[in-house]
Amino acid sequence: MAVMAEREFNERERMLSLAAVISTSLGVGISFGIGFPLTALTFEDWHQPKWMIGLAGAAPALAVFIALPLLSRLMTKVGAVRAIGSGCVIGSIGFLALYMFPSPNAWVVIRLLMSAGFALPWLAGETWINAVAREDMRGRVIAVYAIAFFSGYAVGPMLLRQLGISGLAPFGAAAAITVLSGVPIVLGRHLAPPLHHDGTQSFLWAMRLAPAAMMAAFMGGFAEITNLSLIPNVALAAGWSQDAALGLLTVMTIGGILLQYPLGWLSDKMCRINLVICTGFLFILFSLMLPWALGDAVASMIVMFLIGGMILGFYALGLAIVGERIGPADLAAVNAAFIVMYQAGALVGPIISGIAMTEKPVHGFVATVVGLTVVSGALVVVFDRWEQRRAR
């Protein structure tokens, strides 16, 4: 069982604590916003097959999926601040290694290693947020966290458009931003909630505590990472230029930014599970419109803006459900399981989509994300009903 030593925060301390971890998420978001399209477009320049591009996009998810059971215990042993700082340093070194070893196989291995490091600030940061946020504001606090991360992710492709994908500049900039993103956490270290984990319970046990939230995480994983990894390639297959494809990715992330607070506000006012289902329905609708929309610049931007809001909404809503349904004693363990499920989706989505895109890039992509959304959305409903029966 995970055990978290509770601490009473006054409102000023609560706000400063949340500000520190949310500021760090902004920097980490920029790193992700550079890393994913940099990898996809570089592999395209290297004339790698679509399945290899999908594998490279899934490498970070695979790394976290494998490493997280160990990292969750490491995080609680060294503390949230050291975990976040160490992860930022590892990620920074990883970007420099990508520059030093320019080959597809080396990049897959490096992305695996640096992504295992990035898992530390991810897990520690989200556990921190759910431990400190008040229940009546949880949805909006998590929305602000998501906004900060996706704002960074929106900046990433814009920086990449200015820096290009070759030479030291994109790798050096990403390395510097990644290591500097840990500074707010170091400055706010006295406001970190202490975490403990006795290691006696399995991830399966943690997943069973909140299975509906786990499926929301899976939905967020495949929808978000498949789109972020492969939308530039989908746009290229539809005849778009490289700059325009990156611009489309930026529009999608802006949609994620601007639509999160309304979703967070709604999640504090209504049933979060129902909101997850509504979000899934809208994501399916907008995804089905994508092949038509890519023929028109304005229509494609509108559709991708709306898709951006939906894909980030899955994860943010699921994380709020974890905080709503899980007590402090089990929060660290369940949040780790939540990320595992997110990474399971992030692993499955790009690989299946990459294979499906081999013959028909646009329609193969759409068929994959729509099919996975239908199945996982149905499981959200089934598991939520099972949780309700268990609670009676």
Describe the protein's architecture and organization:
The chain has one domain: Growth Hormone, Chain: A. Helix content is 83%, strand content 2%. It contains 14 helices and two strands. It has a two-stranded antiparallel ribbon.
Query: Structural class, please?
Result: mainly alpha
Overall number of domains: 1
Question: In CATH terms, what is the fold-level topology?
Answer: Growth Hormone, Chain: A
Terminal Cα span: 23 Å
Task: Write the CATH homologous superfamily.
Answer: MFS general substrate transporter like domains
Widest sheet: strand ordering: 1-2
- The CATH class name reads Mainly Alpha
Residue share in helix: over 70%
| Low-confidence regions | 1-5
Report on the biggest sheet: 2 strands, antiparallel
Order of helices and strands: EHHHHHHHEHHHHHHH
Form type: globular
Let me know the number of strands.
2
- How confident overall, as mean pLDDT? 85
Alpha carbon gyration radius: 19 Å
Number of helices: 14
